[in-house]
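Minutes, project check-in
Item: structure for the 306-residue chain
Input as provided by the requester:
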Amino acid sequence: MADKVKLYDIEDEEYMLAGNRMCSGCGLSLIYRIALKALGPDTIITVPASCLTVLHGMQGFTSVNKISVLNTPFETVAASASGIASALEMMGKGNEVTVVAFAGDGGTTDIGIQGLSGAAERRTNFIYACYDNEAYMNTGVQRSGSTPYGSHTTTTPINGKREHKKNMPRILEAHDIPYVATSCASYPLDIYAKFKRAKEIKGTKYLHILSPCPPGWGYSTQDTIKIGKLSVETGFWPLYEIERGKFVLSHPSNKHLDPSKRKPIEDYLSVQKRFSRLSNEEMEEFKEYVKNLWDYIKKRVECNTQ
């Protein structure tokens, strides 16, 4: 499991230059800055069409320093990473360079799931990181497989999405890969520790990181950290690691096994415009979703102690 990290453990080197084209308050900017510090310069990153492409900049200009990045078509990021990893193995550099596929939820849960599943089945030696802003934000806030129940998007404008979000960490765990973890933009030490741990393990590693999005979720740009913390504190987004089948809750989520320690889900939903039209019945559906999620987690934790 990831070692506990303190603030002074984080690398001083900055791999993101000052200024980029991301929206003010973007959760991805925070995630990516910390992830790059954990990964270091001996890294090759492949990125599909996404907000991260916007962050990197137009051809000839970039906001990222000292790290090689390859932009690929929407559905090919895992295949691209597989090719890079294979080439490095043939060159005898498989243990020297870290290969990372970094994609949004649309390029992961929907368009990119086939390539990701294939790479995981082949035990490809790379890290796959999904930054989850819960819709196709780069193209106009369309619904994705990771969009939560009740969320209003440009393709679910009347009644909101009617399905709960796809649980990609559990899907990837079913591939029997050595490491699966969740994190959130509001917890940089957790992000850093989990990327460090993933880098140490050989095989396919999957990190799924919640990335609050001010324009897509409908909140003030100054509230990104607050929103992300509420997702964890209400139990909607649990932080955990699964290493070789062993499930462990991360420190920020540990106390939430006790339902009385969780904040009301209303605290999280009511501060986002995308949920502004939830009915009482839909709010109860959310409460049931959180309850079922934690009932499952409790069983996993209890299995570890038996």
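Outcome recorded: The chain is about 40% helix and 15% strand.
No further action items on this chain.
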